[in-house]
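Reply to thread "Modeling small-molecule complexes from scratch"

Following up on the discussion above, here's a worked example others can learn from. I took a protein sequence and the SMILES for magnesium ion and predicted the complex. Inputs first:
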Amino acid sequence: MRITQIDLWHVAIPVRGTFYPAWIPGFPQTENRFTLIRLRTASGLEGHSAGPSIARERQGLGSLLGPYFLGERADDISSIRQRIREMGYLGQKAGWIEPACWDIVGKSRGKALWELLGGSGGKVKLYASTGQMRTGPERVKEVEARLSEGFEAVKLRVHAATLEEDVEQIRKTRAGVGSRPILGVDANQGWRVAVVANAPRWDFQRALAFCKAAEEAGFSWVEEPLPMDDYQGLSRLRAATEVDLAGGELNSHGLPEFGVMLEKGCYDLYQPDAVFCGGVAETWQIIQKVKAAGARYTPHTWTNGVGLAINLQLFAASPFRDETMLEYPYDSPWLPEVRDGILSQPFLHQRGELEVPRGPGLGIEISQRALRRHGHHFFKATKLRVAVSAVLDKGLRTAKEAGAARDARLAARERELAELSTRGEDSALCALRPD
Ligand SMILES: [Mg+2]
């Protein structure tokens, strides 16, 4: 199951109209952009994953990926994670690539990722996740529209200049929709972006006052009321308010960081996104730790259809699938065709629920037609191409020596994997346990 080819695309799916994400004030988002990766094995199996992007900032990624990943076994998740860690030392956060290997592992065994993880299929319950700022009366209409479609829960966004405006929105919404609907609210203070218009910055007092107001208005959770690394502040805030606190979507230091957050009691609800926190194996370990600590998990999914698919698989397999609800990004013009625009079948909810795909791996198929339309293929690595560029870069003799050293390492690893397999260990599944 060796990786013999790597392809990368810049994808840009147009938004019909303009979407104004609450988390980047003033930013007119006209496209859903991400980098798509396809790993191919010698036997022709293919795995995909996607990393959100702002522009074409991953243009140079291939020059690292080729020599790091080619020749590795897609089912040797521990080695794949080590390669990703090594890329990270140089500033390339590449945890989003790892799910492509799970896609291959699942396809090679005819099993969906949730099955590999020991979970079950069927349907999971969703909450409708809004993404734009609205006034109170506009929110009431929006929440009522979601309720009429079958959702039982909606997450609002607050990101106004003043506390008073934020509180007014949640009070008016609650007053307008009544006490029955489950409402959550995201302050998006975890990772402040003020690159276009200025973005509000909450201090502890403002976060506390808002949480108290959310509590009074019967909100079920407040998401990211403080910066994502203000562990102390979050823990103090959680102790001072009754409303559940949620967060962790862009915390990218994996299990050790979530361990610190759990130890300090930052949140009631942890929202690791496999695309940002290090991949499937890392997230699975975080989920187990969240469970052991008596907290709850539901992933962040607001990226693209591939990211939604990855987190859906993890959520479906998790012990929290009947306890919490999954985020379903849905705020016109951010509609399923924009979110999932390169999938053959977009994820369409049915009365606020989503059928977990039964297909192998991530259970998605990339529409080649849509990829030709919205994707720009910018990198292809094969062993020959990487060998040629190594010769041009280092000279024939040195490139040959380095190639032989690498081949020897891969052969030694192959022997280790064979040994592992004689002990009945699975090369992919053993990476689900902490190192
Ligand atoms: Mg959020």
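What I'd highlight from this example: The chain has a mean pLDDT of 97. The chain has two domains: 3-112+367-432, 115-355. Questions welcome below.
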